[in-house]
Structures are given as C-alpha cells and as structure tokens.
Amino acid sequence: MKQFLYPSHIGDLKTALAEAFEIKHDRYKYESLGHHKTALLIFFNNSLRTRLSTQKAALNLGMNVIVLDINQGAWKLETERGVVMNGDKSEHLLEAVPVMSNYCDIIGVRTFARFENRTDDYTEQILRQFIEHSGKPVFSMESATVHPLQAFADLITIEEHRAKNRRPRVVMTWAPHPKALPQAVPNSFAQWMLAADVDFVYTCPEGYELDPQFVGDLKPIYNQKEALKDADFVYAKNWSCPGVTRPQEYGKVLSTDMSWMVDKAHMDLTNNACFMHCLPVRRNMIVSDDVIESPRSLVIAEAANREISATVVLKRMIETL
Amino acid sequence: MKQFLYPSHIGDLKTALAEAFEIKHDRYKYESLGHHKTALLIFFNNSLRTRLSTQKAALNLGMNVIVLDINQGAWKLETERGVVMNGDKSEHLLEAVPVMSNYCDIIGVRTFARFENRTDDYTEQILRQFIEHSGKPVFSMESATVHPLQAFADLITIEEHRAKNRRPRVVMTWAPHPKALPQAVPNSFAQWMLAADVDFVYTCPEGYELDPQFVGDLKPIYNQKEALKDADFVYAKNWSCPGVTRPQEYGKVLSTDMSWMVDKAHMDLTNNACFMHCLPVRRNMIVSDDVIESPRSLVIAEAANREISATVVLKRMIETL
Amino acid sequence: MKQFLYPSHIGDLKTALAEAFEIKHDRYKYESLGHHKTALLIFFNNSLRTRLSTQKAALNLGMNVIVLDINQGAWKLETERGVVMNGDKSEHLLEAVPVMSNYCDIIGVRTFARFENRTDDYTEQILRQFIEHSGKPVFSMESATVHPLQAFADLITIEEHRAKNRRPRVVMTWAPHPKALPQAVPNSFAQWMLAADVDFVYTCPEGYELDPQFVGDLKPIYNQKEALKDADFVYAKNWSCPGVTRPQEYGKVLSTDMSWMVDKAHMDLTNNACFMHCLPVRRNMIVSDDVIESPRSLVIAEAANREISATVVLKRMIETL
Predict the structure, then answer these.
(1) What pTM was estimated for this model as a whole?
(2) A95, A101, A129: best to mutate for the C interface, most C CBs within 10 A
C-alpha cells in the first residue's frame, strides 16, 4: 500500500477487518516486521488520539518512530510554487518533503483543511506533495478532506457491536458546533460506510450536502428525526458547509440549530442504537452528557480501535517496502 | 502499586530505599520487565528534570515511552462537568482520560496547582480524574499538592549522605521568590521526611504553615536561625500561602523577606549541613551562589536520583499490571 | 571524541570519509554499539533536518534518544553568572547542564548566535557551558559560530560527486536574504573545505569577510562572476556581517543585492558545476527555481548525508565513553 486516503487503498474490507481483529487479539504479532523501519509522523495541526494511537501502532510493529510538529520546533513551510520567498516562511515544501523522506521509511501527515480555497483543500494540495515528492508510502493522519484511520476504526467498532444476523442501519447526523470544522471525518465515514456491508444514510440541514466524490449520488435526509428511525448506530458529527452547490459558502457555518444536538429524545427514536463520535466532542453542543455517558456510547471503543486501524495500515505499508 | 502520590503508596521506605540502591547500582537490571509495556507521560505544565528523568527511567525498564504535551500539539481540555462546551476547550477530560489510557499501560501526569480554587487543588481534581477514569496505574509527576518522585529522590540523597551512626536533623526552610509557587514540593518533602527515619522540622514566616494532611500536627519554627541550628541537611524551598488558617490567602505571596535567603551566614549556623533544593532554583533569591556551588551542595545529586526514584516507581507499577 | 565543533575534532578527514561510506552502505552496522546509551538532543532553536537526521543517526546506532525543546515544554534558562534571578528565567544553565547530563551519555546542542554580543557568540558561550559542566561528550547541532554536522555532510556529498581524476574547485558564494542570518554554516563550510582535499574560494560583497578563526588568511573574491569561473561546486549561502573589520556591524544585513542570487546565468559561468545549499533555502532569493530543481542540484543529497555525518560523529563519541 503506497498511499492511504480511501477505502479502495486498503482493498477488500472484509480482509482488512479480519486482519484488524487478528492484530487486536495479539497486537505485537507482527513486531519483527518493523525492525529497522522508521515511521515519521508529521503534524501540521494539533492531535491527541492520532498522535498517541499511531505512535503506539508503530511501536506494536517494532518500528522506530519520529514525531515532528511543524510550526513547533520546526518552521513554517511555503507550499506555493514560484514565489519569491521573502516573507515568514523559510523553507519550501518542495525541499522539505524529499529531505524528510530521507530519514524514514513511511510518512504519516496531519494537515487540516485551511478553508482558504476549496480547490486547494479538495485536491489535498499538501498531502499530494508528500505523495508525489517523498518517494515513500504516505498515509493521511487526517488531511484536508479525509480521515481514513478514523473511518477504518469506526468500521471495526461497528463490526464488533453489530447484530450478526442482519445488516445494520448506520445513520450519520450533523450536529451543531461553535466553530467551522472540516469535512474530513464525515467524508471518510460516509465513503467507508458506503463501501462496507451496512445500510448508510446521513442527515443534515440544507447546504451541508457532502461532496459526490465521497457519497456518490446519495442525498441526505433533511429531516433528522425521520432519519434516526430504526437506526442501529448513530454517528454524530459537525461539519461546515462543503460548498458543493454554492462554492462561495465553503467552510461557512450555515446553522447553529441546537435542536440537532443528539440527546435522549433523539436516541429514543432509534432501534436502541449505539452512539458514535470520533472525538474530540463538545459536550452539550454535539451530544448531551447522558447520551455520551450511556452504556450504548461507543466513543471510547472507537478511539481504542484507532490503534488497531493504524497498526493494520502501517503493516500493509511495511509489506510493500 | 496503582497510584503514586504519597509515601504510603510505596510502602516500607527501607525496602524502597534498598530497591533504589539496587537499581542505582545496575539501572538496566529490570530491563526485561517493561517489554511490551508503554508509559504515557502527560504534561499539562512545563518540565525539565521530570521530563528527562522519567523518560530515562522508563527506558531503563525496557518500556516504550510516549510523551504528550497538552496545550502544545494537543488541545485544551475541559475539566468541569456539565458545561456547554462552546468556548475554547474542544475536549473533555472525561473522554480524553479513557482515550489516552487505551494506548498505554502506565500513566504519569504533571498538573500544577492553578490557584483558582483551593478545594480543586487540594483534592487533586485533575489527577483524580486520571486515577478514576483511566483504569491504569497513575503516578504524579508533580501535581497540585504533591511531588512524590522528587521527595523520594531527596530521601535517597539524604540516605547516601547521612552520617551512619545517628539520626540526621533535616530542616526545611522557606525562602523568597518573585512568583507564587505551589506547595507540592514542601508538602511532599515534609510528608516523606515525617515517614522516614530522620528528625524533621520546618521553618517559615507566619502564614506559610503547611496543610495538616501533609505535616500532621507538626508546627513550623518561625525563627529561621533557631531552626537551622544543628541541621545536618538544609532543604530550601519557596512556597506560596497554603491557606490553612486563612483560605482567602491561598496561593498569595505573603513575604518577600530577603533575609530568609540561604547564604553562608545561614549555613554557618548548622552542623556543617548539606544544602538541598529540588531545582529549578532562582540563584540569589533562594540561595546565594557560594552556597549552591559549595561542596556541601547536593542539588545535582538530588536531580540524578530522580532517575532512580522514577525507575523504582515504574518498576513497582509494572509488577502490578 | 569528547567534543565536535571543528574538523580537527574528527581527525583525518579521509578516514572519516571512509567511515561515512561504510555506514552509508550499511547504516545499522554499528547498531550494537549504542546499546544502553542515551543521546540527549537539546534544542534552544528550531530545527528540521538536524532534528530528524540526528534522531535517525542515534537510532541507527541502537541508542535511546531523548529530545528536549528548551522554551517549549521546559523553561527559559539564565546564562549569565552572578545575577539575582528575579525575572522570567527560572533556572540557571549552571544547574541545568549538569542535571541534564545525569540522564544521558552524549549531548547534542542547537543554540544559534543571538547577535547581542559578538564575543558571546564567537566564544560559543552556551555550548562551552555544556562542554565544561556536563562531563559528557558534546556535539554542536549548529551553534553560534559552527554547523559541523552540515559541513561534514557537505564534504561527503562533494566526495560522492567529484571527478575522481582531479582536485575539485569549490566556490562558496554569499547570496541575498531578507533576514539577518548567523555565520555558522559558512564558517564551518570554509573551515572543512580548507582542511579537505579541494581548492576552495569564497565570494561576497565587501564587509562580509569571514573570521580568520575559520578561514585563516584566505581573502574573499569580491567579484562573484570571476569567482564562479571554472567552479565544480557552487555552494550558495547567505550570512550577515561577521564584524571582522567593523565589530559594530556584527549581525547586520549590509547588502540585499539581488544580482548575487544564483540563477542560470551564474551557473553558466561554471564548469557545469553542481549546486549546493544547506537548506532551508529561500527560493528566488538565494537561488532560482530552475537551478535548485536542475539535475546538478545536490541539496537533497546533502540533506540525506546529514544522517551519515551524524552517525559517524555519534559512533566516535560512543567509542570514547
């Protein structure tokens, strides 16, 4: 596996799930695989779960790990080509990427959407430079449009908690948030669910429709309560306007309607659904205290599976070195 | 050992000291013990000695180590329950703690007193959340009221430098400082000395009396010069008002009396005492250049023993996993 | 090797080069050498290449590595002796250095010129305190006046790309830059080239003459175009005024003459020279896009050799422990 952004990169999801459970059963099983291999984890943005779980995954595989916080201890990188670099950025990504790739075997990159330019974000401008210029396998640790380690972990979690005798109904619902957030998590979750053996729908206010690149021709259900009916899994998440129909609204907060917050009344509409969220979560904005603390909440289990999804991905990448 | 805040947690101090010297003699002796074990060191506050010595201790035991600086590379954590999280804190400790505990076997936490609310500090509000919600052994790397790795290292240092034929007199003295400092170090030092085989007294200006939780019914000697008489060890430290008698003064600087600075005239009152300080130290505020640079100064030896105390603590915690 | 600042510290350069190529051929060859040895890498300033390549070098040798960012996660250190520490610096380097040395076997330090006082910079005030007070081998990861890991990597790169049948002509040229930069890289590059088996000259505007400590009695060629004639290697670099003739101009930007930028017209004057730069580089200030992207550009190769030079240096230091 030379890059990891989309479910297609990991191939058959049933095989990937089987590998995940094998590793979860014995997380050091492939410890010899990473001998003399170095993972470089590059953070352009903050991280808690990804930072910890990906380090742990690399250690599970016996790899060396080097963590680099760009903008903290390194310096600002220019990403535009052809500029006279007389400002505050002292190095160009065109040098920095091949340089960094010298010292490692596999590269993980966290680089959030900047909301300056929809095209830059939706072409994964920065991650693409790593893929093109590093010569090394590159995986997204949440990039401008995707968060595949999270979506894969979510899939593992659903597989662990689904009723075995029927196809689960998975409902992703938009929820309010005080700041403009990227679409990386909903994009990936939708894309992975549509590739998996589940029934998937999503619900959001008008204007929040996700990009067809991730949802194909699936349309949202605008009535949240209708969407939640019979749900086995409720996946809550805020995202800002994806700008599919009105690009000028890309990255804007179009609604702060608190009636979309997932509380007990919402969960009562479901088929005794499990509650899911990728974390970090704003309590009493996205979800009420009682729902996130209920026995049906899987948020901690999802986070725990981040170690597992990252171990599978790193293992696959080592195998192709 | 499931938590480490107080001397009672490590049990018999003579046994602990014997273990410390065994490890100091051969610091990699228990290297196989930490195989496949991960220590997560979480810093809410700055650290030099603790950061380095605890990493080294974990490496001595063959552990993997992951260092996390909250507020640098992670994000601000909400600690109050029930709030609507619409401000600058994007994750609640109630999620963050169990999440972080997923990726490790043992957790160290540095979290200073905030001086906003005496009760919050003196109930170790943040550290307690780790103890209650992580399901993993948790040790203080200096928390709101205690710094047990330092006190244990100080005890090791005293044991190395005491006359063998008699019980040493250990005198802790308050000293001036430009900023309001927590009571963690004096609390722990007093608590450990009172549990150890030494004669312990402390001296401070009025209003600086330590909390009975740590000193029992021991009262300070308000006359510094009288207290220093016959001292074998002088332990200097600044702390702000513990607020025992007047809670409204908690965390305040009540005195900046420079006559309390430990200089040669002060040391001349003692029984040719060793000088001790936990570091970092403000020279020519807490202690004069000549005293800290004298052959009787143990400050570097104390810091060196931080590796040893941390190795003993991690070893004990691994043994109970 | 107890310190590493100058080519003299590594001894015969042909031997050092042979060792470098041996390690480049098999970078884990000496992996057992670093067993139970800890490298402490201390950064007072930002770093990308040095941070990554030196970590990788230590891992090549089987060492444990601890990275410490002073001012990020630690605290500000006082470096002047005798002061009353009542300001923002809470620890003195006189304590911090021996403390930090307790937890490691070898120390690397990055500490840039501060431009406050030429004497402080040119006596390597901070690095000297580590050398004098740590009791451990200390190497510069770029300090006030030198960057020897870079110069050694540059030498390795030149050796790899030189014509074998004749002594190469190596020309270092000053180039414009928007900010005042230290002289560490040009000082070390000149010093290493003068010690190596090459013909070395350098060219710069008047006032930019390097300190005789590094260039002996070599004078610059003030006419850049004349200097570039017949060059086999062009090494571009900005530096601020070294203050050799007029100390009051130390650290000042004396010229921003864009005609010194290395572009194709400049390279056409050479003997089809290779282009070199230590990175980070300001594109279209120091060098044009086409020159740095040309097949004759060695900038990525130089960076790759940073891992090799650092591995040789750490290996030599381990051997003298």
Answers:
(1) 0.96
(2) A95
